[in-house]
Amino acid sequence: MSDYWSSKTVFAGWATKTDFNKIIDATVKTEKYRYNQLSKQEAETTFKKDQIEGLNRTVLTYKKQLESMDTIDEFLVRKVTSSKTDVVTATVKSGAQEGSHTLEVKQLASVATVSSHDIGEVAYTAAAKDMTFTYDGETYTVNVKSGMTTKELATAIATASGNKVKTSVIDLGHESKYKLQIRGMELGAGHNIGLSAELKAVLQGQKDPAVPLPPETKDIVPTPSKNAKLVVDGVDLQRGSNSVSDVTEGVTYNLNAEEPGTTVTIKVETDFDAIVANVEKFVKLTNELRTGFDLVKNYKNEDLDKKGVNYSLKGNSQIKSVEDKLKNVLATQGDGFIEGSGAGNDLYVTLSALGIKTIARKGDKNYGKLEFDKNAAVIKGGTKTFMDLLKADPEAVAKVFAAEGEGSSSNSSVLEYNSSMYSFGFTKPGTYAIEYDGGTLPTTGESHDITMKINGVERKVGYNVSTRIATVNEGDAKGLAFKVVDTSAGTHSATIAIKEGKVKETIRALDEITEVEKGTFVVMIKGYKKQIDDPASGLKKKMADELARVTALEKRLIAQYAATEKTLANYQNIQKMLEFQLKSQLAKD
Q1: Cα atoms in the 13 Å half-sphere on the side-chain side of 18
Q2: What is one term from the GO cellular component aspect held by the record (predicted)?
Q3: Which of 262, 288, 403, 533 lies 20 to 30 Å from 452, alpha-carbon distance?
Q4: In a domain, 101, yes or no
Q5: What band does 5 get if pLDDT is binned at 50, 70 and 90?
């Protein structure tokens, strides 16, 4: 501050030579301490909010990227080749087994069609008349009007059927002649087109029923729809489509051309390179996320450092809890996986068993990140590599990453796994030790509510006497259904596992972390925003109030010292006048 003011008059200590500016500036500076502290706090909170918002976006991106590989079909990549792609191609899913299949396409599935003779631009000239046609067992009516063109007739036929048939008009390019075609939309036998006598006559070129067609006019004969006929691995088949997915498990055959007598070989193989690429992508994405956490915790801002703002998130407990949660998912045994080599057990239950390890070497720049080398020994001092494990049992490897609710029983002669409601979010992944007494099971009636011990706790279970299917009604196993095979008297037990791979488990953890209302980072961001923007107690409100207080004080001080300056100036004038009078009086004496 360089000037004083009082009303609109500016004073600068010109009378008394007293520097009131310094006095006011020092006072205001002292009084602005609280405002400055609030300003630092607002800068700190804003910076942290921005950092957490960025971290939340990073986590959401990671989640979205993982969703491209969270099913067995996406992770366990199969590849398929055809010896004659112009005749047959194929696509595969994870259920497809490696091997070769032979196909012969004798006939493609087709739709019903009918084509008119060569007819003129105007198709009908007589009085308007309702005419009918049939398609797929349904009858449709077309109002054929006088002067209706061939194109208008085609549109009227398609519209009458609700576009269940499609029509087209081909300009033949001579003598203003056209051909009208009608096509059904359903492949396979039985979806046929029929024409009433009147409509058939119009399509044969009769514009007016009063004018007979020439006797040599040939009848229009609709072509019926047909099934595809093929031979798969020596078995003759018919299907109502040229896409056949119910013959070989996991394989869909796409029939492109009929070529009787030609054998096409379809070969299904595991695409090891694509699976390795998925693993490497998973490791890369995870490491990028961990780098993102490190950047947020260790971020440096020179401007804020100069201002003395304490913005560091390094010791933030919420960030650490999220980090630990995600790391723990990848470091622990998969939910529902049972280690061992017996029936119902799994060859691999952790990522580390497949050679994906966390770097624990102190001083390593990648400390805390994952490392993976497909050709390195999985176990220190061992000889088997990831590629060895993958080629020996690709399904077992893929399950560790992407199992999604697959169920199994440790003893199918006691309890046989039936189904679960995992996909609906009811049945949680994990292992369920189920114990019951066969002698107490109901034997009459249809459905009963009973209890069984599940992981040592009594749970309500629905039991169907005729099917012997039991369905758990509560707890983490809710929706789990299994067949009770051993109903003999006495205590029986078996363990049913619902598997969940590490990609799916990570996504589930991320769902909780990023939940729109209660997610960890969302709650943090809301807290920061409230600290800054709350209209009653937010930092911006406190800063505004404090600034208003200091500004008011400054104005009061300016007015006060201006008045003081004025008073002192008056006294100085009086003093000067008295001194002048005294000197004058002394001079006379």
Answers
A1: 14
A2: bacterial-type flagellum filament cap
A3: 403
A4: yes
A5: very low
The mean pLDDT value for 250-266 works out to 96
Q: Are residues 12 and 90 in the same domain?
A: no
Q: Which residues pair with 6 in a beta bridge?
A: 9
Q: Average pLDDT, stretch 427-436?
A: 96
List the domain range (segments joined by +) for residue 584. Answer: 4-31+537-588
Average pLDDT over residues 75-104: 92
pLDDT at residue number 1: 41
Q: pTM score, two decimals? A: 0.75
Asked if residue 256 is part of any domain, the answer here is: yes
**Considering 241, 270, 299, which residue would you say is the last residue of a domain?**
270
| Same domain, yes or no: 118 and 93 | no
Q: Is 261:283 a contact under the CB 8 Å cutoff?
A: no
Residue ending a domain, among 270, 304, 322, is 270
Q: What string of DSSP letters covers 68-129?
A: GG-SHHHHS-EEEEES-TTTEEEEE-TTPPSEEEEEEEEE--B--EEE--SB-SB---SS-E
Same domain as 105, residue 231: yes
Q: How high is the pLDDT of residue 268?
A: 95
Residue 59: which region, alpha, beta or left (left: phi > 0; alpha: psi -120 to 50)? alpha
Question: Do 25 and 162 sit in the same domain of this protein?
Answer: no
What is the number of domains present in the chain?
4
